[in-house]
Design goal:
Strands 1-2-3-4 form a four-stranded antiparallel sheet, covered by helices on one side. Strand 3 and strand 4 form a beta hairpin. The chain is α+β, with helices and mostly antiparallel strands and about 300 residues long. The protein is built from seven helices and four strands; from the N terminus they run ααααααββαββ. It starts with a helix and ends with a strand. Helix 1 packs antiparallel against helix 2, helix 1 runs antiparallel to helix 4 and helix 3 packs antiparallel against helix 4.
Length: about 300
């Protein structure tokens, strides 16, 4: 009998711990998604995105999708078993929630005074108060409730919170795109990397042979192929020092906002290093010329 009691105590401890962790995880992930949605709604041209700009949104979505259902499942289990949560984690959650709201609001005010867009500030304040306020109210209800029966008002507010989370997930996927869309973006990123490497292989060949190759079979080591179709990229010579390389892209350059392409470097990059393309077959013409000092060959396009 004592073993059964001990096993139940261990089970309850880990269930409480799971609920505790997934609640915090859900709160942080949902705030991340809402903040990213606000940034998408009111973009700031002065804010530079380094690397993959949609990564925070993807992390937030994955957190909400995983942690929130687990937290809800644990709470439903507690209610069905009529297990009251210990007061300490409730009080601690109230403290953390209040502290999160205070810190987030302070950070947002700091950004506002630094030139952030006013509407972004207002909507993020609303998001912070909505999420932290909901968690705070939920924990206060857990602390003060006298029975496990859900009253109509509590049921309505619970349903509303589920709808808010669901709406955030749907809007997040609209912003990020489907998994198939994300894979298409990665294909295009790989094609750009291949084309950039190919054109410098052609430049090196010209430097060695003082002419452009007639076709890509001149490269003994081989040239990368399209990652999706495994077909060779198109190449042709225009004249003795000008060539054209082509690839078939899945999405528009503007549509994907060039993640991984580092647009913030554009002012510092040679034109030949930039690839702006449309969905479908796109070709890039490059010429080989001496640099400004006449010391080595370079590409221009």
């Amino acid at each position: 009998m004592q073993d059964i009691i001990n096993r139940m105590a261990h089970r309850d401890f880990f269930l409480h711990l799971t609920g505790f962790i997934t609640l915090y995880w859900s709160m942080i992930a949902l705030l991340t998604v809402l903040f990213q949605l606000v940034d998408e709604l009111f973009p700031d041209v002065l804010q530079q995105n380094f690397g993959n700009a949609d990564m925070p949104m993807r992390w937030g979505l994955s957190g909400v999708i995983v942690a929130f259902p687990v937290f809800v499942g644990v709470m439903i289990f507690f209610r069905k078993k009529q297990m009251k949560r210990p007061n300490f984690p409730i009080y601690f959650t109230l403290f953390v929630t209040a502290l999160t709201a205070i810190v987030d609001v302070a950070v947002l005010i700091y950004r506002l005074t630094g030139g952030d867009i006013t509407w972004r500030f207002v909507l993020k304040i609303v998001a912070v108060l909505l999420v932290t306020g909901s968690v705070f109210a939920f924990e206060m209800w857990q602390l003060k409730r006298e029975s496990f029966e859900l009253k109509p008002l509590v049921r309505a507010l619970t349903s509303l919170s589920y709808l808010v989370v669901l709406a955030a997930i749907v809007l997040g996927f609209i912003v990020v795109g489907s998994p198939a869309s994300q894979r298409a973006v990665k294909y295009d990123m790989e094609r750009i990397n291949d084309l950039r490497a190919l054109q410098y292989e052609l430049l090196n060949f010209y430097d060695r042979e003082d002419t452009l190759p007639s076709d890509l079979s001149s490269f003994r080591g081989g040239i990368a192929k399209d990652p999706k179709t495994d077909e060779s990229y198109e190449y042709r010579t225009v004249d003795e020092d000008t060539f054209e390389i082509c690839a078939v892209f899945d999405k528009d350059y503007e549509e994907i906002n060039s993640p991984g392409y580092y647009p913030y470097m554009d002012p510092y990059m040679e034109r030949a290093e930039l690839f702006e393309y449309k969905a479908g077959r796109t070709c890039f013409e490059r010429s080989i010329d001496w640099d400004d000092n006449g010391s080595f060959f370079k590409l221009k396009g």
